[in-house]
């Protein structure tokens, strides 16, 4: 009789977590995003002083830890307002603009992109030509027209950003819908009489959500920068409202004599934008393993 060969133990596959670089990216990004959200939500508790209270006797006072400093942690501006308190309250404006404008543009753009990609035909052609027209129109010119007609304000800034960015979501989701709708399981669902609305909701939309989440996260960072730029140019929120762009505009004449007046609002913008960019990069790498 032939001897039975001994059984060979097959190696058990080991599930590896994400690379250490991705984990550090996520941790740093979430930390910066969480810090900005905490400042916006708990501003009345965290701010040491009234952000609008002025004290001309303490104007352009350096930070407390600087040589010849004062009780003001990050110093004061040109009319004696506490910079730390204004930065904390300014997070509300930046995050409100970033989150609300992205929510509006992503919902509208996703809905239009799904319809255009799934149904095709004249609707797809008309929607994409309109999206091309929107993307070719200069953003700053559109903002100038809207602000000139309606006047500056928080709602106008959100409106401008939402209207100018829906087309990016529509084009992205349209391409995903076109790729998915020809899949075999979609054709099988159609043959079984499943309604188009259910197919779009249960199959097409989930395949596009990953790309939408990445674009939305990166767009929040971009919109925070755009809001600060428009406010710096005088096209944003009311100058009396604490905002990071407004603080930079007020401090531009004191860059050489009071560096803290512009440095700390600039750092707030940089760190917040970096946080959302890091989270967006992590989402892109996790939702697209082929990019790793």
Properties at a glance:
292 residues; elongated; mainly alpha; 0% strand; single chain; MetI-like fold
Domain count, please report it: 1
**What percentage of the residues does DSSP assign to strands (E)?**
under 5%
In total, the number of strands is: 0
Distance between the termini: 53 Å
Q: What would CATH call the architecture? A: Orthogonal Bundle
Describe the structure.
By secondary structure, the protein is mostly helical. The chain has a single domain, classed as MetI-like fold. It has helices spanning 20-41, 43-46, 83-119, 121-136, 139-150, 154-181, 184-191, 196-232, 244-251, 260-287. The protein is elongated, with a radius of gyration of 25 Å.
Sum this structure up briefly.
This protein has a single domain, classed as MetI-like (MetI-like fold), CATH 1.10.3720.10. 68% of the residues lie in helices and 0% in strands.
Question: What is this structure's SSE topology?
Answer:
Layout: H1 20-41, H2 43-46, H3 83-119, H4 121-136, H5 139-150, H6 154-181, H7 184-191, H8 196-232, H9 244-251, H10 260-287
């Amino acid at each position: 009789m032939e001897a039975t060969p001994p059984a060979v133990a097959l190696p058990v596959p080991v599930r590896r977590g994400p690379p250490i670089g991705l984990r550090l990216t996520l941790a740093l990004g979430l930390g910066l995003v969480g810090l900005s959200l905490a400042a916006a939500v708990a501003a009345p508790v965290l701010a040491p002083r009234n952000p609008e209270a002025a004290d001309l006797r303490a104007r352009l006072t350096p930070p407390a830890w600087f040589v010849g400093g004062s009780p003001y942690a990050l110093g004061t501006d040109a009319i004696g307002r506490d910079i730390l308190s204004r930065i904390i309250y300014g997070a509300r404006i930046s995050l409100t603009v970033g989150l609300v404008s992205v929510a509006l543009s992503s919902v509208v753009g996703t809905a239009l992109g799904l319809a255009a990609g799934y149904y095709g035909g004249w609707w797809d052609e008309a929607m994409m030509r309109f999206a091309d027209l929107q993307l070719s129109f200069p953003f700053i010119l559109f903002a100038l027209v809207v602000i000139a007609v309606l006047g500056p304000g928080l709602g106008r800034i959100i409106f401008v950003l939402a209207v100018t960015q829906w087309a990016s979501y529509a084009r992205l989701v349209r391409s995903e819908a076109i790729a998915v709708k020809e899949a075999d399981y979609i054709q099988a669902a159609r043959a079984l009489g499943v309604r188009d609305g259910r197919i779009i909701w249960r199959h097409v939309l989930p395949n596009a959500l990953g790309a939408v989440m990445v674009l939305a996260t990166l767009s929040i960072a971009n919109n925070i920068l755009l809001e600060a730029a428009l406010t710096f140019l005088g096209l944003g929120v009311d100058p009396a409202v604490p905002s990071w762009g407004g603080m930079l505009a007020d401090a531009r004449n004191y860059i050489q004599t009071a560096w803290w007046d512009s440095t700390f609002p600039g750092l707030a913008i940089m760190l917040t934008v970096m946080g959302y960019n890091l989270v967006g990069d992590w989402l892109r790498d996790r939702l697209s393993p082929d990019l790793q």
